[in-house]
Design brief:
single chain; YnbE family lipoprotein; lipoprotein; mainly alpha; 2 helices; 0% strand; rod-shaped; YnbE
């Protein structure tokens, strides 16, 4: 087939299918729920701070 014939067939198909495809925004806003557990980070930070305190003040924490 020649290029104009292929183009015409493609154009005809796209016109026929254009009524079948609808793009519509949702009525409600999209909700993204980000439940992030930061407990581990806080515990690690507290452990590091406590270790630094013990190391810098050995007289307060005898073993």
């Amino acid at each position: 087939m020649k290029k104009p014939v292929i183009f015409a067939i493609g154009l005809a198909l796209s016109i026929c299918l254009s009524g079948c495809i609808n793009i519509k925004a949702p009525d409600k806003p999209i909700e993204i729920n980000l439940n992030v557990n930061i407990k581990q980070e806080v515990v690690v930070k507290l452990q590091k701070d406590a270790q630094d305190l013990i190391t810098s003040n050995p007289e307060l924490f005898p073993q």
